[in-house]
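Notes taken during the Thursday session

The instructor put the following on the board and asked us to keep it in front of us for the whole hour. The protein is Sensor-like histidine kinase SenX3. We were told not to look anything up and to reason only from what is written here. First, the residues (389 in total):
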Amino acid sequence: MSAASIVVLGIVFGLTVGVLFTVLIRAALDRGAEVLDLQATALPDGALAVLDALTQPALVVDGSNSVLQATPEALALGLTDGRALTHPELERLVDEARTDCASRGTDLVLVRAAGARNLVVTARAAPIDTTRVLLLIDDRSDAVRLEAVRRDFVANVSHELKTPIGAVSLLSEALQSAADDPDQVRRFAARLTTEAGRLGALVQQIIEFSRVQGADPLQSAEAVPLDEVLRAAVDRTRVAAEARDVSVVLGKKSGLWTLGDRAMITTAVQNLVANAIAFSATGGHVGLGVRSREGVVEIAVSDQGIGIAEEDLDRVFERFYRTDQARSRSTGGTGLGLSIVKHIAENHGGEVRLWSRVGRGSTFTVRLPETPAPASAAARPSRREKERA
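Then, after some discussion, the predicted C-alpha coordinates were revealed:
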Protein backbone atom coordinates (compact mmCIF):
# COMPACT_ATOMS: atom_id res chain seq x y z
CA MET A 1 0.00 0.00 0.00
CA SER A 2 1.38 3.33 -0.98
CA ALA A 3 2.07 6.15 1.40
CA ALA A 4 -0.68 8.23 -0.21
CA SER A 5 -3.29 5.53 0.45
CA ILE A 6 -2.22 5.27 4.06
CA VAL A 7 -2.64 9.04 4.48
CA VAL A 8 -6.13 8.98 2.92
CA LEU A 9 -7.22 6.09 5.15
CA GLY A 10 -5.90 7.97 8.17
CA ILE A 11 -7.86 11.05 7.26
CA VAL A 12 -11.08 9.08 6.70
CA PHE A 13 -10.62 7.22 9.99
CA GLY A 14 -10.01 10.45 11.85
CA LEU A 15 -13.09 12.09 10.36
CA THR A 16 -15.20 9.05 11.21
CA VAL A 17 -14.01 8.99 14.80
CA GLY A 18 -14.55 12.74 15.11
CA VAL A 19 -18.10 12.57 13.78
CA LEU A 20 -18.87 9.63 16.06
CA PHE A 21 -17.58 11.46 19.13
CA THR A 22 -19.52 14.58 18.13
CA VAL A 23 -22.75 12.59 17.83
CA LEU A 24 -22.17 10.89 21.19
CA ILE A 25 -21.39 14.17 22.92
CA ARG A 26 -24.44 15.84 21.38
CA ALA A 27 -26.69 12.95 22.48
CA ALA A 28 -25.27 13.13 25.98
CA LEU A 29 -25.89 16.88 26.17
CA ASP A 30 -29.47 16.49 24.91
CA ARG A 31 -30.11 13.70 27.37
CA GLY A 32 -28.67 15.78 30.19
CA ALA A 33 -30.89 18.71 29.23
CA GLU A 34 -33.97 16.46 29.23
CA VAL A 35 -33.05 15.17 32.69
CA LEU A 36 -32.54 18.72 33.97
CA ASP A 37 -35.88 19.84 32.49
CA LEU A 38 -37.62 16.85 34.04
CA GLN A 39 -36.05 17.61 37.40
CA ALA A 40 -37.05 21.24 37.08
CA THR A 41 -40.69 20.61 36.22
CA ALA A 42 -41.47 17.43 38.14
CA LEU A 43 -43.25 18.19 41.43
CA PRO A 44 -42.81 16.10 44.58
CA ASP A 45 -45.11 13.16 45.14
CA GLY A 46 -48.58 14.32 46.17
CA ALA A 47 -47.99 17.97 45.22
CA LEU A 48 -50.34 17.82 42.24
CA ALA A 49 -53.01 16.18 44.39
CA VAL A 50 -52.64 18.96 46.96
CA LEU A 51 -53.00 21.65 44.28
CA ASP A 52 -56.08 19.94 42.88
CA ALA A 53 -57.63 19.91 46.35
CA LEU A 54 -57.07 23.63 46.94
CA THR A 55 -60.05 25.90 46.37
CA GLN A 56 -58.01 29.10 46.55
CA PRO A 57 -55.67 30.51 43.89
CA ALA A 58 -52.28 28.75 44.04
CA LEU A 59 -49.25 28.49 41.76
CA VAL A 60 -45.88 26.71 41.66
CA VAL A 61 -43.00 28.53 39.94
CA ASP A 62 -39.47 27.44 39.07
CA GLY A 63 -36.13 29.23 39.51
CA SER A 64 -36.85 31.63 36.65
CA ASN A 65 -40.38 32.31 37.98
CA SER A 66 -41.98 30.39 35.12
CA VAL A 67 -45.29 28.87 36.19
CA LEU A 68 -45.09 25.08 36.46
CA GLN A 69 -48.59 24.53 37.80
CA ALA A 70 -51.60 26.78 38.57
CA THR A 71 -55.08 26.17 39.95
CA PRO A 72 -58.11 27.23 37.89
CA GLU A 73 -58.80 29.98 40.45
CA ALA A 74 -55.37 31.51 39.82
CA LEU A 75 -56.02 31.54 36.08
CA ALA A 76 -59.48 33.03 36.59
CA LEU A 77 -58.03 35.94 38.60
CA GLY A 78 -55.44 36.58 35.89
CA LEU A 79 -52.46 35.93 38.18
CA THR A 80 -50.73 34.10 35.33
CA ASP A 81 -51.03 33.83 31.58
CA GLY A 82 -50.17 30.12 31.86
CA ARG A 83 -46.43 30.68 31.54
CA ALA A 84 -45.39 33.54 33.83
CA LEU A 85 -46.69 35.63 36.72
CA THR A 86 -48.53 38.73 35.53
CA HIS A 87 -47.78 40.94 38.55
CA PRO A 88 -44.24 42.06 39.49
CA GLU A 89 -45.29 42.29 43.15
CA LEU A 90 -45.80 38.52 43.21
CA GLU A 91 -42.43 37.94 41.52
CA ARG A 92 -40.68 40.02 44.20
CA LEU A 93 -42.39 38.05 46.97
CA VAL A 94 -41.37 34.74 45.37
CA ASP A 95 -37.76 35.93 44.98
CA GLU A 96 -37.63 36.93 48.66
CA ALA A 97 -38.91 33.52 49.78
CA ARG A 98 -36.41 31.73 47.52
CA THR A 99 -33.46 33.87 48.63
CA ASP A 100 -34.27 33.61 52.36
CA CYS A 101 -35.30 29.93 52.14
CA ALA A 102 -38.30 30.82 54.30
CA SER A 103 -42.00 31.58 53.91
CA ARG A 104 -42.92 35.18 53.22
CA GLY A 105 -46.37 36.80 53.25
CA THR A 106 -47.80 40.27 52.66
CA ASP A 107 -50.94 42.18 51.70
CA LEU A 108 -50.97 43.50 48.13
CA VAL A 109 -53.14 45.57 45.82
CA LEU A 110 -52.76 44.10 42.34
CA VAL A 111 -53.59 46.52 39.53
CA ARG A 112 -55.52 44.91 36.70
CA ALA A 113 -56.26 45.95 33.14
CA ALA A 114 -58.52 48.91 32.43
CA GLY A 115 -62.15 48.13 33.17
CA ALA A 116 -61.36 45.43 35.75
CA ARG A 117 -61.52 46.01 39.50
CA ASN A 118 -58.14 45.88 41.28
CA LEU A 119 -57.46 42.83 43.45
CA VAL A 120 -56.84 43.14 47.19
CA VAL A 121 -55.05 39.96 48.26
CA THR A 122 -52.99 38.36 50.97
CA ALA A 123 -50.12 36.52 49.25
CA ARG A 124 -47.83 33.92 50.82
CA ALA A 125 -44.80 32.30 49.17
CA ALA A 126 -43.21 29.11 50.57
CA PRO A 127 -40.10 27.37 49.10
CA ILE A 128 -40.57 23.75 47.99
CA ASP A 129 -36.84 23.23 47.34
CA THR A 130 -33.88 25.39 46.32
CA THR A 131 -35.60 26.73 43.20
CA ARG A 132 -39.31 26.00 43.19
CA VAL A 133 -41.75 28.08 45.25
CA LEU A 134 -45.42 27.60 46.13
CA LEU A 135 -47.49 30.79 45.97
CA LEU A 136 -50.86 30.94 47.78
CA ILE A 137 -53.30 33.82 47.24
CA ASP A 138 -56.23 34.81 49.46
CA ASP A 139 -58.51 37.13 47.46
CA ARG A 140 -60.04 39.64 49.90
CA SER A 141 -61.38 42.04 47.26
CA ASP A 142 -65.08 41.44 48.00
CA ALA A 143 -64.61 41.67 51.76
CA VAL A 144 -62.69 44.95 51.45
CA ARG A 145 -65.27 46.37 49.04
CA LEU A 146 -68.18 45.41 51.30
CA GLU A 147 -66.46 46.96 54.30
CA ALA A 148 -65.96 50.18 52.32
CA VAL A 149 -69.64 50.12 51.32
CA ARG A 150 -70.63 49.63 54.97
CA ARG A 151 -68.48 52.54 56.14
CA ASP A 152 -69.81 54.80 53.39
CA PHE A 153 -73.38 53.78 54.14
CA VAL A 154 -73.04 54.52 57.85
CA ALA A 155 -71.41 57.88 57.11
CA ASN A 156 -74.09 58.79 54.57
CA VAL A 157 -76.92 57.77 56.89
CA SER A 158 -75.46 59.80 59.73
CA HIS A 159 -75.18 62.83 57.47
CA GLU A 160 -78.69 62.47 56.04
CA LEU A 161 -80.31 62.04 59.45
CA LYS A 162 -78.73 65.22 60.79
CA THR A 163 -80.91 67.53 58.70
CA PRO A 164 -84.41 66.31 59.67
CA ILE A 165 -83.40 65.63 63.27
CA GLY A 166 -81.92 69.13 63.55
CA ALA A 167 -85.05 70.62 61.98
CA VAL A 168 -87.33 68.75 64.40
CA SER A 169 -85.24 69.98 67.34
CA LEU A 170 -85.33 73.62 66.21
CA LEU A 171 -89.06 73.53 65.45
CA SER A 172 -89.88 72.02 68.84
CA GLU A 173 -87.95 74.83 70.53
CA ALA A 174 -89.74 77.42 68.38
CA LEU A 175 -93.06 75.79 69.22
CA GLN A 176 -92.36 76.11 72.94
CA SER A 177 -91.38 79.78 72.67
CA ALA A 178 -94.55 80.57 70.64
CA ALA A 179 -96.92 78.83 73.02
CA ASP A 180 -98.96 82.03 73.50
CA ASP A 181 -99.39 82.65 69.75
CA PRO A 182 -101.93 80.21 68.22
CA ASP A 183 -101.05 81.16 64.63
CA GLN A 184 -97.34 80.52 65.21
CA VAL A 185 -98.12 77.27 66.98
CA ARG A 186 -100.13 76.05 64.00
CA ARG A 187 -97.38 77.11 61.55
CA PHE A 188 -94.59 75.46 63.50
CA ALA A 189 -96.70 72.36 64.15
CA ALA A 190 -97.36 71.98 60.41
CA ARG A 191 -93.65 72.24 59.63
CA LEU A 192 -92.88 69.83 62.45
CA THR A 193 -95.30 67.33 60.97
CA THR A 194 -93.61 67.70 57.56
CA GLU A 195 -90.13 67.14 58.99
CA ALA A 196 -91.33 64.17 61.05
CA GLY A 197 -92.82 62.66 57.89
CA ARG A 198 -89.57 63.18 56.01
CA LEU A 199 -87.62 61.59 58.86
CA GLY A 200 -89.98 58.61 58.94
CA ALA A 201 -89.69 58.16 55.16
CA LEU A 202 -85.89 58.27 55.35
CA VAL A 203 -85.76 55.68 58.14
CA GLN A 204 -88.14 53.43 56.20
CA GLN A 205 -86.00 53.73 53.05
CA ILE A 206 -82.85 52.93 55.04
CA ILE A 207 -84.50 49.80 56.42
CA GLU A 208 -85.65 48.82 52.93
CA PHE A 209 -82.20 49.44 51.46
CA SER A 210 -80.51 47.33 54.15
CA ARG A 211 -82.99 44.53 53.50
CA VAL A 212 -82.44 44.39 49.74
CA GLN A 213 -78.65 44.60 50.14
CA GLY A 214 -78.45 41.49 52.28
CA ALA A 215 -81.22 39.43 50.69
CA ASP A 216 -80.92 36.82 47.95
CA PRO A 217 -84.44 36.63 46.45
CA LEU A 218 -83.49 33.79 44.11
CA GLN A 219 -82.89 31.35 46.97
CA SER A 220 -86.63 31.08 47.63
CA ALA A 221 -87.92 32.47 44.34
CA GLU A 222 -91.46 32.12 43.08
CA ALA A 223 -93.17 32.92 39.80
CA VAL A 224 -94.29 36.56 39.96
CA PRO A 225 -97.20 37.87 37.79
CA LEU A 226 -96.03 41.26 36.55
CA ASP A 227 -99.50 42.55 35.70
CA GLU A 228 -100.44 42.26 39.36
CA VAL A 229 -97.14 43.84 40.43
CA LEU A 230 -97.75 46.89 38.25
CA ARG A 231 -101.32 47.23 39.46
CA ALA A 232 -100.18 47.07 43.10
CA ALA A 233 -97.52 49.73 42.48
CA VAL A 234 -100.13 52.05 40.96
CA ASP A 235 -102.51 51.48 43.88
CA ARG A 236 -99.80 52.31 46.43
CA THR A 237 -98.95 55.61 44.72
CA ARG A 238 -102.52 56.69 43.98
CA VAL A 239 -102.70 59.21 46.86
CA ALA A 240 -99.44 60.90 45.82
CA ALA A 241 -100.60 61.06 42.20
CA GLU A 242 -103.94 62.63 43.15
CA ALA A 243 -102.22 65.14 45.43
CA ARG A 244 -100.09 66.37 42.51
CA ASP A 245 -102.88 65.96 39.93
CA VAL A 246 -100.73 63.51 37.96
CA SER A 247 -102.47 60.76 35.98
CA VAL A 248 -100.83 57.32 36.00
CA VAL A 249 -101.69 55.28 32.90
CA LEU A 250 -101.26 51.51 33.12
CA GLY A 251 -100.63 49.63 29.88
CA LYS A 252 -102.65 46.68 28.68
CA LYS A 253 -102.45 43.31 30.38
CA SER A 254 -99.34 41.40 29.27
CA GLY A 255 -99.59 37.98 30.93
CA LEU A 256 -95.83 38.06 31.60
CA TRP A 257 -94.08 36.50 34.60
CA THR A 258 -90.64 36.59 36.18
CA LEU A 259 -88.93 34.64 38.94
CA GLY A 260 -88.10 36.21 42.30
CA ASP A 261 -89.47 37.94 45.37
CA ARG A 262 -92.86 39.51 44.63
CA ALA A 263 -92.67 42.08 47.45
CA MET A 264 -89.22 43.29 46.33
CA ILE A 265 -90.19 43.62 42.67
CA THR A 266 -93.33 45.52 43.67
CA THR A 267 -91.21 47.86 45.82
CA ALA A 268 -88.88 48.54 42.88
CA VAL A 269 -91.76 49.41 40.54
CA GLN A 270 -93.47 51.47 43.23
CA ASN A 271 -90.30 53.50 43.78
CA LEU A 272 -90.05 54.23 40.05
CA VAL A 273 -93.69 55.32 39.85
CA ALA A 274 -93.36 57.49 42.97
CA ASN A 275 -90.20 59.06 41.55
CA ALA A 276 -91.96 59.79 38.24
CA ILE A 277 -94.90 61.39 40.06
CA ALA A 278 -92.65 63.53 42.27
CA PHE A 279 -90.73 64.96 39.31
CA SER A 280 -93.73 65.50 37.03
CA ALA A 281 -95.42 68.86 36.62
CA THR A 282 -98.94 69.38 37.96
CA GLY A 283 -101.38 67.79 35.54
CA GLY A 284 -98.66 65.61 34.02
CA HIS A 285 -98.84 61.99 32.89
CA VAL A 286 -96.90 58.87 33.95
CA GLY A 287 -96.96 55.76 31.76
CA LEU A 288 -96.38 52.25 33.03
CA GLY A 289 -96.12 49.05 31.02
CA VAL A 290 -94.33 45.73 30.52
CA ARG A 291 -93.25 43.75 27.47
CA SER A 292 -91.14 40.73 26.54
CA ARG A 293 -88.03 40.84 24.37
CA GLU A 294 -85.72 37.85 23.71
CA GLY A 295 -86.43 36.09 27.00
CA VAL A 296 -86.30 39.29 29.06
CA VAL A 297 -89.25 41.19 30.51
CA GLU A 298 -88.94 44.97 30.45
CA ILE A 299 -90.92 47.07 32.95
CA ALA A 300 -90.90 50.68 31.77
CA VAL A 301 -91.98 53.76 33.74
CA SER A 302 -92.08 57.00 31.73
CA ASP A 303 -92.83 60.56 32.74
CA GLN A 304 -92.98 63.96 31.06
CA GLY A 305 -91.20 65.72 33.90
CA ILE A 306 -88.12 67.91 34.21
CA GLY A 307 -85.70 65.23 32.98
CA ILE A 308 -82.14 64.54 34.11
CA ALA A 309 -79.01 66.30 32.90
CA GLU A 310 -76.52 64.15 31.01
CA GLU A 311 -73.79 64.62 33.63
CA ASP A 312 -76.12 63.16 36.28
CA LEU A 313 -77.23 60.05 34.37
CA ASP A 314 -74.42 57.86 35.70
CA ARG A 315 -74.94 58.96 39.30
CA VAL A 316 -78.69 58.88 39.90
CA PHE A 317 -78.50 55.29 41.21
CA GLU A 318 -75.92 56.18 43.87
CA ARG A 319 -77.04 56.14 47.50
CA PHE A 320 -78.37 59.52 48.69
CA TYR A 321 -77.53 61.22 45.39
CA ARG A 322 -79.98 63.94 44.37
CA THR A 323 -79.86 65.82 41.08
CA ASP A 324 -81.71 68.79 42.57
CA GLN A 325 -81.27 69.24 46.32
CA ALA A 326 -83.90 71.98 46.64
CA ARG A 327 -86.52 70.01 44.70
CA SER A 328 -85.75 66.85 46.65
CA ARG A 329 -86.44 68.72 49.88
CA SER A 330 -89.75 69.96 48.54
CA THR A 331 -90.83 66.51 47.34
CA GLY A 332 -89.52 64.70 50.43
CA GLY A 333 -87.02 62.67 48.40
CA THR A 334 -84.47 60.61 50.34
CA GLY A 335 -82.02 59.80 47.55
CA LEU A 336 -82.37 56.07 48.23
CA GLY A 337 -85.31 55.09 46.02
CA LEU A 338 -83.36 54.52 42.81
CA SER A 339 -80.54 52.76 44.69
CA ILE A 340 -83.12 50.31 46.01
CA VAL A 341 -84.46 49.77 42.49
CA LYS A 342 -80.95 49.03 41.18
CA HIS A 343 -80.17 46.54 43.96
CA ILE A 344 -83.48 44.72 43.56
CA ALA A 345 -82.96 44.40 39.80
CA GLU A 346 -79.39 43.12 40.21
CA ASN A 347 -80.42 40.69 42.98
CA HIS A 348 -82.90 39.19 40.50
CA GLY A 349 -80.26 38.76 37.80
CA GLY A 350 -81.40 41.83 35.91
CA GLU A 351 -80.58 45.49 35.46
CA VAL A 352 -82.16 48.93 35.29
CA ARG A 353 -81.66 51.33 32.37
CA LEU A 354 -82.35 55.04 32.06
CA TRP A 355 -83.20 57.35 29.18
CA SER A 356 -83.72 61.02 29.92
CA ARG A 357 -83.69 64.46 28.32
CA VAL A 358 -83.90 67.74 30.20
CA GLY A 359 -87.35 69.24 29.72
CA ARG A 360 -88.72 66.14 27.97
CA GLY A 361 -88.90 63.56 30.76
CA SER A 362 -87.37 60.23 31.70
CA THR A 363 -87.93 56.52 31.15
CA PHE A 364 -86.64 53.94 33.64
CA THR A 365 -86.65 50.34 32.43
CA VAL A 366 -86.19 47.35 34.74
CA ARG A 367 -85.08 44.27 32.78
CA LEU A 368 -85.57 40.85 34.41
CA PRO A 369 -85.33 37.26 33.15
CA GLU A 370 -88.69 36.02 31.87
CA THR A 371 -90.21 32.81 33.21
CA PRO A 372 -93.19 30.84 31.84
CA ALA A 373 -96.53 31.30 33.54
CA PRO A 374 -97.35 28.48 36.00
CA ALA A 375 -99.88 25.94 34.80
CA SER A 376 -102.24 26.99 37.60
CA ALA A 377 -102.23 30.62 36.43
CA ALA A 378 -104.47 29.94 33.43
CA ALA A 379 -107.24 28.54 35.62
CA ARG A 380 -106.95 31.26 38.29
CA PRO A 381 -109.37 34.20 37.87
CA SER A 382 -107.92 37.71 37.93
CA ARG A 383 -108.84 40.24 40.58
CA ARG A 384 -111.14 42.09 38.17
CA GLU A 385 -112.90 38.86 37.30
CA LYS A 386 -113.40 38.18 41.01
CA GLU A 387 -114.84 41.68 41.47
CA ARG A 388 -117.28 41.17 38.59
CA ALA A 389 -118.37 37.87 40.09
